[in-house]
């Protein structure tokens, strides 16, 4: 049984990777593909277990949401989001409460639900999904005007704790375990203990991280992984909001200076993608066509109301007083309020913890999330262009911590030989391309910052700076010249082979070759290969 399960997991992961590549080409959000994959496995007989264990799904998805919340902070550049943090904070708190309240009123007066169930589904769906939005913005490389991307990053990354708090409050009322005093204390404890312990854990983890000497590569990732788990678990033990703590720990640690920071951001980016895949795949497994059929009509009504009213009114009410956000920008921010992973987790939590519900909240939320990702997600690039929000000179990557200002710049080294065409010339006479800069000269162990009238001499090493190059169609591989090979003792030009030899490694020496470079037995050739060559 365990072997079949492992094979199934491998098949699901490989299928998800394939669907991710396909979805990026045809413009459909990848998370929609994961939902459909779960539905396929659950309803075609390929899944060996009739998976209806909401309690197990709740625990699994709650753990997955920890990493999503942590990365929401860890991947955010504070320098980029600082100008809009007040507005984004208001959207993440007051905006969430307003959305939940408006949806609750709509469900009660229009759909004729009970008060508590109305506000429960409003709370469950009141937050927006950061990962869904930014997987689209990053994938399409959409730079946005007037700090729109940083605002969306902070708002959608930080509004899940408010939705979680509202959901827990409504559930406690439904279970009869709440009073005015207990609700007030619960709200205070979630905010105070979640924020307080989050800041404390982040500061202690940062101090320890800078003093630990990791002897093995990759252990720094495990350390941050453990901190992320602790940032949720410790506040939760004493009634704090673990998701708020995880987000704060993430944003504080993510903006500290430490070694291998970019690789850590990339690690958690991949981990978060995996966690989202788990959540959306489980959502597909739990969904059944009969339940979805019954839920589609109320889901359509709720989705339409959220898109036109419950999301739009709070955004305009909060941003308009600042007088620096045009109507077009506010409309775009309203439109990209996608529902995603957090709504799914909270819907599963409501299904497990609420007493007998009159409405199928899980399947309704499922349909709303499906509509949101499929409709809004697919139209984000189109709406950005139609609303004139796209800034071709802006780089959406500047919002994230894996962005570096020098990311596309590389240093090079050129040795000046007696027969070099540069020997004896001044720098101003070299006629260099505009995108190549001579940054440093190495001469007799000295480092010289050159000027235009600096004369190059044989023996100098010239350090250049230019734009780097990265192409998925180009790759490097290494091939060794064997004893008896026809290449031995002959120049590269006589037997060029497939690809371009860009480096010859001869013992400890690295040789940048030319066509007349003579090859020796044992030489290791580094070859640039183009997939279409």
Task: Give the helix/strand layout.
Blueprint (H helix, E strand, L loop, with lengths): L1 H25 L3 H14 L10 H21 L3 H4 L3 H25 L5 H10 L5 H11 L7 H11 L1 H15 L5 H32 L7 H19 L4 H13 L6 H26 L2 H22 L1 H8 L7 H9 L5 H13 L7 H26 L22 E7 L20 E8 L2 E3 L12 E7 L6 E7 L19 E7 L2 E3 L12 E7 L3
Antiparallel strand pairs: 1-4, 2-3, 2-4, 5-8, 6-7, 6-8
Notes on the structure:
Helices cover 57% and strands 9% of the residues. It has 533 residues and is of the alpha+beta class. The model has no long low-confidence stretch (mean pLDDT 84). α1 packs antiparallel against α2. The chain is built from 18 helices and eight strands. It starts with a helix and ends with a strand. It has three domains: 292 residues; 61 residues, Alpha-Beta Plaits (2-Layer Sandwich), CATH 3.30.70; 63 residues, Regulator of K+ conductance, C-terminal domain (Alpha-Beta Plaits, 2-Layer Sandwich), CATH 3.30.70.1450. It is elongated, with a radius of gyration of 28 Å. A four-stranded antiparallel β-sheet has the order 1-4-2-3, with no helix packed on it. The protein has a four-stranded antiparallel β-sheet with strand order 5-8-6-7, with no helix packed on it.
Low-pLDDT sequence parts:
none
* Total domains: 3
**Helix and strand run:** HHHHHHHHHHHHHHHHHHEEEEEEEE
**Total count of helical runs of at least 4 residues:** 18
Provide the structure class. alpha+beta
Short account of what is shown:
The chain is an alpha+beta fold. It is 57% helix and 9% strand.
Descriptive tags:
57% helix; four-stranded antiparallel sheet; 18 helices; single chain; elongated; Alpha-Beta Plaits; 3 domains; 533 residues; alpha+beta
């Amino acid at each position: 049984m365990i072997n079949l399960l492992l094979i199934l997991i491998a098949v699901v992961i490989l299928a998800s990777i394939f669907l991710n590549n396909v979805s990026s080409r045809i413009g459909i959000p990848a998370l929609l593909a994961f939902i459909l994959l779960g539905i396929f496995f659950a309803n075609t007989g390929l899944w060996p277990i009739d998976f209806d264990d909401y309690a197990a799904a709740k625990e699994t998805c709650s753990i997955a949401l920890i990493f999503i919340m942590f990365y929401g902070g860890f991947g955010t550049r504070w320098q980029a989001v600082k100008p809009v943090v007040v507005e984004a904070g208001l959207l993440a708190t007051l905006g969430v409460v307003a959305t939940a309240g408006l949806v609750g009123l709509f469900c009660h007066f229009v759909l004729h639900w009970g008060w508590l169930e109305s506000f429960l589904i409003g709370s469950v769906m009141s937050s927006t999904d950061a990962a869904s939005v930014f997987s689209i913005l990053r994938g399409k490389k959409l730079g946005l005007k007037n700090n729109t991307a940083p605002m969306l990053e902070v708002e959608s990354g930080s509004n899940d704790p408010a939705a979680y708090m509202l959901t827990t409050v409504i559930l406690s009322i439904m279970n009869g375990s709440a009073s005015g005093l207990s609700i007030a204390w619960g709200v205070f404890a979630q905010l105070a203990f979640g924020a307080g312990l989050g800041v404390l854990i982040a500061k202690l983890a940062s101090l320890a991280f800078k003093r630990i000497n990791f002897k093995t590569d990759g252990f720094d990732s495990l350390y941050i992984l453990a901190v992320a788990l602790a940032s949720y678990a410790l506040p939760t033990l004493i009634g704090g909001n673990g998701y708020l703590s995880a987000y704060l720990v993430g944003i504080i640690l993510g903006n500290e200076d430490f070694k291998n920071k970019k690789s850590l951001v990339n690690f958690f980016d991949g981990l978060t993608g995996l966690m989202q895949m788990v959540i959306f795949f489980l959502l597909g497994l739990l969904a059944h066509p009969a339940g979805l059929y019954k839920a589609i009509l109320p889901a359509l009504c709720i989705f339409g109301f959220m898109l036109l009213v419950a999301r739009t009114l709070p955004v305009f009410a909060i941003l308009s007083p600042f007088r620096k956000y045009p109507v077009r920008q506010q409309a775009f921010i309203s439109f990209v309020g996608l529902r995603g992973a957090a709504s799914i987790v909270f819907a599963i939590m409501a299904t497990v913890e609420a007493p007998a519900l009159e409405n199928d909240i899980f399947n309704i939320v499922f349909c709303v999330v499906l509509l949101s990702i499929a409709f809004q997600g697919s139209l984000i690039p189109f709406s950005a262009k139609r609303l004139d929000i796209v800034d071709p000179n802006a780089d959406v990557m500047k919002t994230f911590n894996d962005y570096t200002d020098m990311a596309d710049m590389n240093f090079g080294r050129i040795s000046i030989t007696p027969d070099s065409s540069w020997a004896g010339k001044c720098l101003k006479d070299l006629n260099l391309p505009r995108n190549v800069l001579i940054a440093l000269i190495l001469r007799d162990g000295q480092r010289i910052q050159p000027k235009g009238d600096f004369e190059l001499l044989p023996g100098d090493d010239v350090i250049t700076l230019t734009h780097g190059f990265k192409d998925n169609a180009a790759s490097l591989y290494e091939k060794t010249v064997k004893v008896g090979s026809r290449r031995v003792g002959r120049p590269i030009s006589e037997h060029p082979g497939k690809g371009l030899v860009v480096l010859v490694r001869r013992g400890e020496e690295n040789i940048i070759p030319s066509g007349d470079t003579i090859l020796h037995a044992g030489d290791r050739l580094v070859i640039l290969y183009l997939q279409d060559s």
